[in-house]
From TrEMBL:
Pathway, per record: Lipid metabolism
Descriptive protein name: Fatty acid desaturase domain-containing protein
Gene Ontology MF, one: oxidoreductase activity, acting on paired donors, with oxidation of a pair of donors resulting in the reduction of molecular oxygen to two molecules of water
Main location: membrane
Protein's membrane topology: Multi-pass membrane protein
PANTHER family: ACYL-COA DESATURASE, DESATURASE 1, ISOFORM A-RELATED
Lineage: Eukaryota, Viridiplantae, Streptophyta, Embryophyta, Tracheophyta
A Gene Ontology BP annotation from the UniProt entry: very long-chain fatty acid biosynthetic process
Listed transmembrane segments: 39-58, 64-82
Subcellular location: Membrane
Gene Ontology CC terms, in alphabetical order: endoplasmic reticulum membrane
Species in which this protein is naturally found: Stephania yunnanensis
Family to which the UniProt record says this protein belongs: Belongs to the fatty acid desaturase type 1 family.
Length: 225
């Protein structure tokens, strides 16, 4: 890790009247040292976006509604199963339901590759029409939110509340990682949290963890320093 960090530093200078050394790192894109794998990934991502330009020519309502349903299922599957239930143990489910969510819903994660942020699929299945948009949109949402809404940053992505099934409030998650909800205000729509609440109401979700008012106040005091 140290070798990688040093490789990314292109210049450094000492700040006057200080012992602090400022280091300028490579830009993630323009000053990047590209290798074959980077080029392949970049080419595939560009081609996937270009192929979406042909989607309107193959539009039909059946494919559209299939895309909408699959988008909702896979989006909720990732944030509810992989993220909130398994990664952060924000609530408990019966093992049968837990395995169902783990295996069936987040199907686009089958070829996942660990790259620091475990959010990028390695390849897509062959499909036609608007069904391609399911993978593309879910990939955008799952990569953008945790990358853009970083810890102790004021950035929120409320406009992605519906498309990201709650991931638009990712900064709230950084504040309370144990919480089953990304919603801190009543108007912050978290669709995945609505599903979890429904599961709790019918007795399928138990030990659902949410931050208390005192915890919220402590975090507010900490961030205001």
């Amino acid at each position: 890790m140290v070798a990688v960090e040093e490789k990314n530093i292109i210049s450094s200078h000492k700040i006057p009247f200080s012992d602090v050394v400022a280091k300028k790192r490579r830009n993630a894109i323009w000053n990047r040292v590209w290798n074959i794998r980077d080029m392949i990934y970049a080419t595939v991502l560009v081609l996937v976006h270009l192929l979406c330009l042909f989607a309107p020519f193959y539009f039909n309502w059946k494919a559209f509604w299939v895309a909408v349903v699959l988008y909702w299922i896979t989006g909720n599957g990732v944030t509810i199963s992989y993220h909130r239930n398994l990664a952060h143990m924000s609530f408990k489910l019966p093992k049968v339901l837990e395995y169902f969510l783990l295996i069936v819903l987040p199907m686009h994660y089958r070829d996942i590759q660990s790259t620091g942020l475990a959010n990028t699929g390695r390849k897509t299945q062959e499909c036609s029409g608007f069904e391609k948009a399911v993978f593309l949109c879910i990939s955008h949402e799952n990569v953008l939110a945790p990358s853009y809404c970083t810890w102790n940053s004021p950035v929120q992505m409320g406009r992605h509340a519906f498309s990201g099934v709650g991931h638009g409030w990712h900064n709230n998650h950084h504040a309370f990682e144990f919480s089953a909800t990304f919603q801190n205000k009543w108007w912050q729509v978290d669709i995945a949290w609505c599903v979890i609440r429904l599961l709790e109401r019918v007795g399928l979700a138990t030990d659902v963890k949410v931050p208390s008012e005192s915890q919220k106040q402590k975090m507010k005091t900490y961030l205001s320093k």
